[in-house]
Amino acid sequence: MTNMAYKDPEKKRAYQKRWRASRTPEQKEAHNLKARLRAEKYRGTRLDKGKQKAYMRTRHLKYNYGMTVDEHLEMYAAQKGCCAVCGKPIEYESVDTEHNHITGKVRGLTCHHCNTGLGMFFVDEKGVEILKQAIKYLGE
After folding, report:
1. Residues 35 and 65 grouped into a single domain
2. Percent residues over pLDDT 70 in the chain
3. To 10 degrees, what angle do helices 127-139 and 112-121 make?
4. Mind giving me the DSSP string for the chain?
5. Are residues 54 and 114 located together in one domain of the fold?
6. Which of 87, 92, 97, 140 is most buried by a 10 A CB count?
7. Are 75 and 121 contained in the same domain?
8. Please, what is the average pLDDT of the chain?
9. Where are the beta strands (DSSP E) in 89-139?
10. Considering Cα of 65, then 129, then 123, then 77, what sign does the dihedral take?
């Protein structure tokens, strides 16, 4: 079968159905055995979910903000586990790192709602002025 079968989803499904039906039980068992052996070989090499999450947080903080997890935890402790904007308590796992997108400087740790709200206003250098106008508007 040529690659033409993959351009049309119906033809692809029909081809796959014919292919599955044409396989003998021995071929199916051989394929399943290979898959099981491959899974057993690599099962021990993957990180468990907790280690994976910690590893990804470490990489994310270093790459995006140039800071270590310890520095991030110190910032969280200095804010007493609260959002820098609204002051509500937040768990460390769900904290957002609020930063200046132009300079890359980290300003503080916020809850998701405050970080998203600030991000909507600070899309350019005029963000502070727009935010002041929004506050004035809400006060009317």
Report:
1. no
2. 91
3. 110
4. --GGGGTSHHHHHHHHHHHHHH--HHHHHHHHHHHHHHHHHHHTTSPPHHHHHHHHHHHHHHHHHS--HHHHHHHHHHTTTB-TTT--B--GGG-EEEE-TTT--EEEEE-HHHHHHHHHH-SSTTHHHHHHHHHHHHH-
5. yes
6. 97
7. yes
8. 86
9. 96-99, 106-110
10. positive
Over residues 107-123, the mean pLDDT reads 87
Quote the domain boundaries for residue 98: 49-139
Q: What is the pLDDT of residues 41-53, one digit of tens each?
A: 777 666 677 777 8
Residue type, 124: D
Query: Span 106-112, mean pLDDT?
Result: 93
Residues in the chain: 140
User: Tokens representing 25?
Assistant: 């039980």
The pTM of the full predicted model, rounded to 2 decimals, is 0.60
Copy the structure tokens of residue 24: 């003998």
Q: How many CB atoms lie within 10 A of CB 9?
A: 9
